[in-house]
Write a structure and sequence with these properties.
With 347 residues, the protein is of the alpha/beta class. The chain contains twelve helices and 14 strands. It folds into two domains: 143 residues, NAD(P)-binding Rossmann-like Domain (Rossmann fold), CATH 3.40.50.720; 183 residues, Dihydrodipicolinate Reductase, domain 2 (2-Layer Sandwich). The strands form two sheets. It has an eight-stranded mixed sheet. The structure holds nicotinamide-adenine-dinucleotide. The site of nicotinamide-adenine-dinucleotide (NAD) has 23 residues, from loops.
Length: 347
């Protein structure tokens, strides 16, 4: 068996640079081949990151050197590549959201189970050191009873961003701040605070009249645990500031701004808390001002976790099943905003 696991890429657009850089940076993975009908994008990707151009998606699936396929196509084009890749015996990492409907997400989950393959969703913010520190403190009971979990994403995207590719301005294709940008932070709240019972959301278009989309979301969340939360997310707020995630419990509070903590305080303070306060202070990659304003480290953890999941025959850290509930929360927010009423889950 080769000492590096072979990877194939489907879709060489904006996000592919993070996957290409992450695969190349890891000593556990090798980029074998990539596919994209847009020849210019394919050529640029191969030029930047190496590997071979695949003649087609089918040719990529037939390549026995490839163990894992990364599906990086637009949001409503995930299942159509994920299901055949799993059926061809590949493990799959698919970009977020898993799909645009729960039904298509279920097809992907069923195909992974039926073919005994691993399926992970690229919700890499869960790997962020600060988020893992909060999760660990929650699991250790340091917060006591959880009261509140909030995400404030005040970003900016110019109208050009929405017009750059056809799908970016079409809601059914996966456009809109809720499903496209806030999704990571909706998912992180689910990861930290547990399953959601109900949502009450409002959506507006503040600064992008050229597109028929929400660029601003406000949502109230009731978690099954009884805790409550807020999501405020926008791409209308120039110049864009770092995300704030806030978790409060009866015995502790953690607040992150970008990758760093501005508050990390518990009734049972511990010597290691000082190190937690230093997390992320050497880098700032938040995506606040533009889509390329991100690092590839979190994608590398995602990719190396897939390698380990295959080797150890365990679930990947970010399963499609857990991402499905995050999708359900986001879809419930759309339903709530459309009907101007609170929505109870499951849908
Ligand atoms: N995890 C993150 O932080 C993050 C960041 C950005 C985007 N994304 C996600 O990544 C996905 C892609 O987003 P993007 O911004 O790169 O989009 P994009 O439009 O820039 O790229 C999508 C690519 O898919 C290609 N494609 C279309 N049909 C294809 C086919 N039949 N075979 C192969 N390729 C095909 C397109 O030509 C295009 O190059 C989306 O699901 C998005 O939500 C995730």
């Amino acid at each position: 068996m080769p000492d590096k696991m072979g990877f194939g890429i489907v879709g060489c657009g904006l996000v592919s640079q993070f996957h290409g850089a992450a695969i190349n940076a890891s000593d556990k993975t090798e980029l074998i081949a990539s596919a994209d009908p847009d020849q210019d994008r394919l050529d640029k990707f191969i030029g930047d990151f190496g590997g071979e151009p695949a003649a087609s998606f089918e040719a990529l699936l037939a390549d026995e050197r490839i163990d894992v396929v990364n599906i990086l196509t637009p949001n409503a084009m995930h299942a159509q590549f994920t299901v055949p890749a799993l059926e061809a015996g590949k493990h799959v990492i698919v970009e977020k959201p898993p799909e645009m409907t729960l039904e298509k997400t279920d097809l992907m989950i069923e195909a992974a189970a039926a073919n005994d393959r691993k399926l992970a969703i690229s919700l890499q913010v869960r790997f962020r050191k600060s988020m893992r520190a909060i999760k660990q403190a929650i699991d250790e009971g340091r917060f006591g009873k959880l009261y509140e979990g909030d995400a404030f994403m005040k970003w900016f995207r110019p109208t050009d961003y929405y017009l750059m590719d056809d799908w970016r301005s079409k809601r059914d294709q996966g456009a809109g701040v809720t499903i496209q940008h806030a999704f990571h932070y909706i998912d992180v709240l689910h990861f930290l605070m547990g399953p959601v019972k109900s949502v009450d959301a409002r959506m507006t278009n503040m600064a992008h009249p050229e597109v028929q989309l929400e660029d601003t979301l406000k949502a109230f969340i009731e978690f099954e645990s009884g805790a409550e939360g807020l999501v405020e997310a926008s791409t209308a707020l120039w110049p864009g500031t770092p995300i704030r995630i806030e978790v409060n419990g009866e015995k502790g509070t953690a607040i992150t701004e970008g990758e760093v903590f501005n508050t990390w305080q518990f009734e049972d303070d511990r010597p290691e808390d000082e190190a937690v306060m230093q997390i992320g202070r050497d880098s700032q990659v938040t995506g606040a001002g533009g889509a390329a304003d991100l690092g590839y480290e979190e994608h590398m953890w995602l990719i190396e976790d897939m390698v380990a999941a295959i080797a150890e025959d365990r679930d990947p850290f970010i399963t499609a099943g857990s991402a499905r509930h995050s999708l359900e929360i986001a879809l419930a927010m759309y339903l709530s905003a459309d009907n101007n009423e609170a929505v109870t889950l499951p849908l």
